[in-house]
Design goal:
With 169 residues, the chain is mainly alpha-helical. It has a domain at 14-118: Ribosomal protein L17 (50s Ribosomal Protein L17, Chain: A), CATH 3.90.1030.10. The chain has 5 helices and 3 strands, in the order H-E-H-H-H-E-E-H. It has helices at residues 14-31, 38-55, 60-70, 73-86, 142-168, and strands spanning 33-37, 95-102, 109-115. The protein has a 3-stranded antiparallel beta sheet. Helix 1 (14-31) crosses helix 2, helix 1 crosses helix 4 (73-86) and helix 3 (60-70) packs across helix 4 (73-86).
Length: 169
């Protein structure tokens, strides 16, 4: 029966599962991407994303919370020093899971899990941010309103000039 099963236990006891996820999280933070099974990658995403969110606010309390989960001071310092700076403006979704196919030996579904902001192939540095839109309508900025106001004024000036040229001819 699956009563009260809220997450994947990965076929392990609690202590083994927590230790495995902590080790995988440290490896992910250190290397920025790792290869694992799809089930472990999904479990790892649920484990790491709240820690990355905590790392955005660098306080002693947040460092202690993250350290209690990761249990590796080098991974914690790397997370707060480098990773948090790079994902500072992102509201969530720090990890990407890419399915790789099946493993040769046991046909397990394999995946690569990586930090989104560290992959330069998918995120070239020259890309501009997506424009914020809302359901109720288009959000206009001050620059757009200035441009629309100046264009009709120029059009009126050209209309005034054209009748003058016709009168002269």
């Amino acid at each position: 029966m699956r009563h009260g099963k809220k997450f994947n236990h990965l076929g392990r006891k609690t202590a083994h599962r927590k230790a495995m996820l902590a080790n995988m999280a440290c490896s992910l933070i250190e290397h920025k991407r790792i290869n694992t099974t799809v089930a472990k990658a999904k479990a790892l995403r649920q484990y790491v994303e709240p820690l990355i969110t905590k790392s955005k606010n660098d306080t002693t309390h947040n460092r202690r919370i993250v350290f209690s989960n990761l249990r590796d001071k080098y991974a914690v310092s790397e997370l707060f020093r480098d990773v948090a700076v790079k994902v500072g403006d992102r509201p969530g979704g720090y990890l990407r899971i890419i399915k790789l196919g099946n493993r040769q030996g046991d046909n397990a579904d394999m995946a690569m899990i990586e930090l989104v902001d560290y992959n330069e192939i998918y995120n070239p540095k020259g890309t501009k941010k997506k424009k914020a839109t809302r359901r109720r309508g288009k959000k206009t900025s001050e620059k757009e309103t200035e441009v629309t106001e100046t264009i009709p004024a120029k059009a009126e000036e050209t209309k005034k000039e054209k009748p003058d040229t016709k009168d002269e001819a």
